[in-house]
Amino acid sequence: MKKTHVLGLVFIAASIAALLTLMDDISTYDSVESARRKEGKFVHLIAKLDTTKPVIYDPLKDPNYLSFIAVDSLGSSTEVVYRNAKPTDFEKSQRVVMKGSMKGEVFECKEIILKCPSKYTDEKVAKL
What we know:
Shape: elongated
CATH class of the domain at 28-116: Mainly Beta
Strand order of the largest sheet: 2-3-4-6-5
Number of strands: 6
């Protein structure tokens, strides 16, 4: 076998190994119920904040603890624990994308992305 063939095979094997490693991080959006069935696995949830329940965040006591109830589009809810500072304008967000995993009945969130309403919508309507 030529050296170029061997190098080509090594490159292909390394590429396949890299893709398989990256596939562990790929996730689709799940509902609360499907996340419960995948307990311990990394998932993405899209939900909204349940404004009827309290948001637990005390920056003086523990600035890296946020707890709230999230409700998905199917009506299922779960307690969410986020061990980081509360995002700015958290309560104003229309939707919350959360990345993490279920631990029992609690969603242990690693990252929060806020989906805020467009700040330009009302201004455009008012100008028309």
